[in-house]
Design brief:
Strand order of the largest sheet: 8-9-12-15-18-21-24-27-30-33
Strand content: 35-45%
Structural class: mainly beta
Number of strands: 35
Number of domains: 2
CATH superfamily of the largest domain: Single-stranded right-handed beta-helix, Pectin lyase-like
CATH class of the largest domain: Mainly Beta
CATH topology of the largest domain: Pectate Lyase C-like
Length: 485
C-alpha cells in the first residue's frame, strides 16, 4: 500500500476527488442488479432518484416520521461507507440498517447536504435509510454506497454537531459518551439489587459464580486480590451475565497480578480499582470480548512496567469483536508498552463505538488507543511522555479527537501498520514538545500541522472542558480513590 507522508486531504481536494470518482465506485449504481425501494414516496417522486447521480431529482417521503428508502442488489455486496445527500435540512433523526439482519449500522441526527457514514464492512443485499423523524417530508437526492470507502475520503465539509455546555462532574453516577446510549449503563444498581463485599479473589469468584442472574449485583472489593488467593483461576470472568458492578472500597482494592475479563456480558461497571502487573489469563488488566455492550470503566489506576520486555505484559484496557457502547473515563494509565487495543486484528471488523474522556496517559509507549474499524471519541484527555506512537486510527476507523492535551510526545496521532488507513476528526487539541517522525512505509502521521481528515458526528450530548483546563482537571481527578463510591 502506498501512503501519503502527512495529512491526507484538504477540504478542496476532498471535494474535487469526490466529484470525479464517486459514481464510478458507487455500488448503488454499479452493484449487481442495483435497485431501490422504500416504505412510500410522495407523488411525482421515484425510489430510483436516490441512485441516479442526479442532485436535481430526489425521493420524497410521504410523511415526516417513520419513513424508509432502500438500496438493494440481486446478490450481496460488501459495503462499508454510505454517503447521503439531502435536499434541505428536514431530517432530525436517522438510522442506517442492514435489512438482511436488522442490525443498526449507524445512527445520528441531521443529514444535510452531505453526510458520510462509515461502518464496519457488511455483506448485504439491502441497506435501509430510516428517517426516524423530520421537521417536514425528507427529500433524499442520493443514497450512495461504497466498498471499503471506494476512492472517496471521509468528507471534512460534513456539518458538525454542537457540544452542549454544562458542568464537568468527575464523580458522576452515570457515564457520558457511548455508554450512555441504549438505556444507559447502571451495572449492579436497580430493583432487588444485591451487594456483597469481598477481600480475596476466591470470594470474588464465588460472588460471580453463585449470583442470582435475575438480580443486579454489586461486588465491593476491600483487599488485595492475587493469583495466590483466587482459588486457582487465572482471571475473573464476568461471563454470560448482565447488570454487574465491581467497585473498590476507598483505596483498598488492589488487583496484583490478575485481571478481569468481560465476555458475553452487558451493562457492566468497573470502578475505583488499582490493577497492576497482570501476567496471567489473557494478560490484560481489563479486557472486553464481544458480544458485549454498555460497559463503563471509570476511575481506575492501571499499570505495568517499562522495565521488562515489550511482550512480557499485554494491554491495560482492551476490547475485541462485537462490542458497543463503551466509555473509558477518568483512569490513570501508565508505565505500559502496549496500552489500549480495540480490535485485535485487521479482520476484527466490527462497528465498535468507544468513548475515552478525562483519562491520564503517562509514560506509555503506544496504543493510546490503537483503534480498528468503528467510531471513537477521545476528549479532554491528558497525554504525557508518549514514547513511540499515541492514538493510532486504523482500518477505516473514524476517531473524533477533541480538546486533549499532548505533552512530551512522539507521533501523538497516526495511522500505522495496517493495509488500510483510519481517519481523525481533530478539534481544539494542544501540542507541546512534540516530535513528528514520518515513516512512510508504516503509514501516515497527522502532524505537524494537524488537520481533520473526517468528521464524526455524535449521537449523544456531553460537557467539554476548555483545553486550557484539561491538564489540571485530569491530574486532580483521574485514577482510583478520587471519589466516594
Amino acid at each position: 500500500m502506498q501512503y501519503r507522508n502527512t495529512l491526507c486531504y484538504s477540504v478542496l481536494a476532498a471535494a474535487i476527488a469526490f466529484s470525479i470518482q464517486a459514481q464510478a465506485d458507487n455500488l448503488a449504481i454499479t452493484g449487481p442488479g442495483a435497485g431501490a425501494d422504500g416504505s412510500g414516496k410522495a407523488s411525482g417522486t421515484s425510489y430510483g432518484n436516490v441512485r441516479d447521480a442526479d442532485m436535481q431529482s430526489y425521493w420524497q417521503a410521504p410523511a415526516n416520521n417513520g419513513q424508509r428508502v432502500s438500496v438493494k442488489w440481486s446478490s450481496p455486496v460488501n459495503a462499508s461507507r454510505v454517503v447521503v445527500r439531502e435536499l434541505g435540512n428536514a431530517v432530525n433523526s436517522w438510522q442506517l440498517v442492514n435489512n438482511d439482519n436488522g442490525a443498526v449500522l449507524a445512527s445520528g441526527n441531521a443529514l444535510g447536504s452531505v453526510k458520510t457514514i462509515d461502518f464496519a464492512t457488511v455483506n448485504t443485499s439491502k441497506l435501509n435509510l430510516n428517517i426516524v423523524s423530520a421537521s417536514s417530508a425528507a427529500r433524499i437526492a442520493e443514497f450512495e454506497v461504497y466498498q471499503d470507502g471506494g476512492n472517496t475520503p471521509p468528507d471534512p465539509t460534513d456539518p458538525v454537531d454542537p457540544v452542549e455546555p454544562g458542568p464537568v462532574t468527575s464523580c458522576a453516577a452515570s457515564p457520558q459518551g457511548y455508554a450512555s446510549l441504549n438505556g444507559g449503563t447502571t451495572g449492579g444498581a436497580g430493583n432487588n439489587a444485591v451487594t456483597v463485599t469481598v477481600t480475596t479473589g476466591a470470594q470474588l469468584v464465588s460472588a460471580l459464580q453463585n449470583r442470582d442472574l435475575n438480580r443486579p449485583l454489586t461486588i465491593r472489593v476491600n483487599g488485595t486480590i492475587t493469583p495466590a488467593n483466587s482459588g486457582g483461576v487465572s482471571k475473573f470472568d464476568i461471563k454470560d451475565m448482565d447488570n454487574v458492578s465491581i467497585i473498590g472500597v476507598g483505596g483498598n482494592a488492589l488487583f496484583d497480578g490478575i485481571g478481569i475479563k468481560i465476555f458475553r456480558a452487558n451493562n457492566v461497571i468497573i470502578r475505583n480499582l488499582t490493577l497492576r502487573y497482570v501476567n496471567t489469563g489473557d494478560k490484560d488488566a481489563i479486557t472486553i470480548e464481544g458480544p458485549a455492550s454498555n460497559i463503563w470503566i471509570d476511575h481506575n489506576e492501571v499499570y505495568n512496567s517499562l522495565n521488562v520486555g515489550k511482550d512480557y505484559y499485554d494491554e491495560l484496557i482492551s476490547g475485541k469483536k462485537d462490542i458497543d457502547n463503551v466509555t473509558v473515563s477518568y483512569n490513570y494509565l501508565h508505565d505500559s508498552w502496549k496500552t489500549s487495543l480495540w480490535g485485535n486484528s485487521d479482520s476484527d471488523n466490527y462497528d465498535r463505538r468507544i468513548t475515552f474522556h478525562h483519562n491520564h496517559w503517562y509514560r506509555v509507549n503506544s496504543r493510546l488507543p490503537l483503534f480498528r474499524f468503528g467510531q471513537g471519541h477521545i476528549y479532554n484527555n491528558y497525554y504525557n511522555e508518549i514514547q513511540d506512537t499515541g492514538i493510532n486510527s486504523r482500518m477505516g476507523a473514524v476517531i473524533r479527537i477533541e480538546n486533549n492535551v499532548f505533552e512530551n510526545a512522539k507521533n501523538p496521532i497516526v495511522s500505522f501498520y495496517s493495509s488500510a488507513i483510519g481517519y481523525w476528526d481533530t478539534r481544539g487539541n494542544s501540542f507541546s514538545n512534540i516530535t513528528w517522525q514520518d515513516y512512510p512505509s508504516d503509514g501516515v502521521i497527522a502532524g505537524p500541522n494537524v488537520q481533520p481528515t473526517a468528521v464524526l458526528n455524535l449521537p449523544y450530548s456531553f460537557s467539554l472542558l476548555p483545553t486550557a483546563e484539561v491538564k489540571a482537571h485530569v491530574l486532580a481527578n483521574a485514577g482510583a480513590n478520587k471519589c466516594s463510591f
